[in-house]
Amino acid sequence: MKERKKKKGNYLSLRINIMFFVIFLLFSVLIFRLGMVQIVFGEDYKREIERTVEVPVTTPVPRGKIYDANGKLIVGNNPQKAITYTRSHAVTQKEMIETAKLLAKLIKKDSEEDLKAITQRDRQDFWIIENPELALKKIKEEDKDRLTAQELSKAEYDKQIYDMTRERITEEELNSFSKEELEVLAIFREMSSSIALTPHPIKNKNVEEKEFAIVSENLHVLPGVDTTVDWDRFNAFKDEDGNVTLGSVLGKITTSKEGLPSDMLEYYEARGYSRNDRVGKSYLEMQYEDVLQGQKQIIKNHTDKTGNLIKTEIVRDGKAGKDLVLTTDIEFQQEVEKIIQKRLGNMRASQYYMDRAFVSVMNPKTGEILAMAGKQYVKDKETNKTEINDYALGNMNTSYSMGSTVKGATVLAGYQTGVIQQNTYLYDSPLHFKGTQVKRSWNTSGFGSINELYALRRSSNVYMFLIAMKIGGQPQYVAKAPLSINKIEGINELRRNFNQFGLGVKTGIDLPGEHAGYGGDQIPPEPGKVLDFAIGQYDTYTPLQLVQYISTIANGGYRIQPHIVKEIREPNYENDELGPVYQEIKPTVLNKVDMKDQWINNVKEGFRQVVNHNQGTAYSSIKNKQYKIAGKTGTAQALYDGPLGGHPMLWNLTFAGYAPYDDPEIALSVVVPWASTDKTHINLDIADEVFKAYFDLKEKRAKGDAAKENEEISGDGTE
């Protein structure tokens, strides 16, 4: 018995010893591993823990300015104080709300615009964050069971729960926020919509000095918040009604809230833009975005592995956008706009449909747009009041039948095709074709036997009809016989010649959205429409095409590309003067018309007679003949297709001209659509006043320069 107990005791002792030995081995291994971690791999692990992530971030710089041809500032930037927020990767919604609550005590963010920007979704999200316990009660156990039975992924399950919670928040709960809470929400929504590590404006309008100062003093308790200087775009020239001079052509930029346009998001992001960057969204601001935007400052943010911001460093200094110098003289532009507004306003009482007028003015030798003006009467849908708005863009994106102004191109097409020679006489009398209405000139009995100069001076329709017939393959008119021209060959040949002058093709102006007009790809349903084409009553053209056409004739046959930007300049940081020239926009010849110089000179003589011969159609209306004006009048019957009801037949009143006729420096087109009569001369009255405004301004500046020069000479003498 004793021997059995002794054996049992020895057995237990052995097991305990084995257990202690195993424990000893385990501790030895553990100590060894700890030693390896601390001694061998310690530095590596330490570096891994302290490792930072470098994230480059771009910050915007002031946009380039826009000046007129004489260096007057048209569009600039007003510096303004701004409060921004930079969201880190690691920040939570709760932390952002806490920061928003602190910030709401320091700034005002409760304007009508701020509160209106808060959406129902914003309210729902904010309510859930602020009322977590009540939000949980919105979901019943059966809801959870039903979703669980669908075997959804965790992400989809959580989304379904969240959406269900949002939908069950009552209107009373959503409208229960106090004004103070809505102000916090307005700040929070800006914070949460920001892109990580990219400064986002919380408030950049009407930031008071006190707000700016107190936020600056409390940045240490406002993580991510900063105070900085932003900019706001402004237009220097406005009329008494608040309309911006040349406004529609200058274009607009997006706001920081709009950011990059959704349809061009990939395009801009590939070029280093941030989503909340302001960019040009229309016309000049959009066309020259790459130039105006400037070189953005690049800041490198250093974050730890969890996304906390450790430090920032400037990698590249920012540089303001380059400045644009326009070809347009803003003072002349204002005068042209006043002329249009006055003349159009005077016609409103008697002309129900006449709601717009356009003037394009160009240097025929360089293509520089000296003025591009348009006005349109529009009824405000809310107030029901009629207002007159800037419609300069209508010069390039609306088109009309131009009437007789195109007859110079018709005569030149006749020369080019050989169907007439210089001083060719044709008989102008009413044309009676079988099965069609009679076609005649405005002088219903006809002008008799006339040559092309007389036809231009008196604006003969029949002379142009006979040219079109010959081009279409019918050499002689036969009374009461069918019109037997080849309408396809006839219209194509005429269009080809018209295109050489810019009629029916885009002018190539440096603005987006230009129209080419209508009709260029259509074959007339009947041959008689080919004859109508020859007098400007089939295809439609833009006012800008019309001025390019008359410029091409004025300069001897060179179709010049119109441009509204004259120079690109480097920004000047020292003062308000223009910086050095970065790029000069030189004249671009699109084509030389396939015509003899003597043909073009003959048509120019016809245009001179239109204004200066006592039989000319513009003789009595163009008063300022001292400027040596040449040009061509036009009236075209056209079906009304404007904003008012009905489709009556109305008249488009046009004029295209240039001066001085012996050395042209200004060419213009005037287009006034939809007059109820062709007896009014609003087109010629506008043209006459625009020519006078141009030369008066030129004379005034010449006198001013002479006086300044004399003053400098006198000053030098006294020294």
Automatic annotation (TrEMBL):
Penicillin-binding protein transpeptidase domain segment(s): 358-693
This enzyme's EC code(s): 3.4.16.4
Entry membrane topology: Single-pass membrane protein
InterPro entries noted in UniProt: Beta-lactam/transpept (IPR050515), Beta-lactam/transpept-like (IPR012338), PBP_dimer (IPR005311), PBP_dimer_sf (IPR036138), PCN-bd_Tpept (IPR001460)
Localisation per UniProt entry: Cell membrane; Membrane
UniProt record, GO biological process: cell division
Primary location recorded for the protein, binned into one broad class: membrane
Keyword Signal part of the UniProt annotation: no
Ranges of residues in domain Penicillin-binding protein dimerisation: 59-312
Domain of life of the source: Bacteria
SUPFAM superfamilies: beta-lactamase/transpeptidase-like (SSF56601), Penicillin binding protein dimerisation domain (SSF56519)
Sorted UniProt keywords: Cell cycle, Cell division, Cell membrane, Cell shape, Cell wall biogenesis/degradation, Membrane, Peptidoglycan synthesis, Transmembrane, Transmembrane helix
Pathway the protein contributes to: Cell wall biogenesis; peptidoglycan biosynthesis
Pfam families according to UniProt: PBP_dimer, Transpeptidase
Catalytic activity, as annotated: Preferential cleavage: (Ac)2-L-Lys-D-Ala-|-D-Ala. Also transpeptidation of peptidyl-alanyl moieties that are N-acyl substituents of D-alanine
Family: Belongs to the transpeptidase family.
Protein name (database record): serine-type D-Ala-D-Ala carboxypeptidase
The organism of origin for this protein: Cytobacillus purgationiresistens
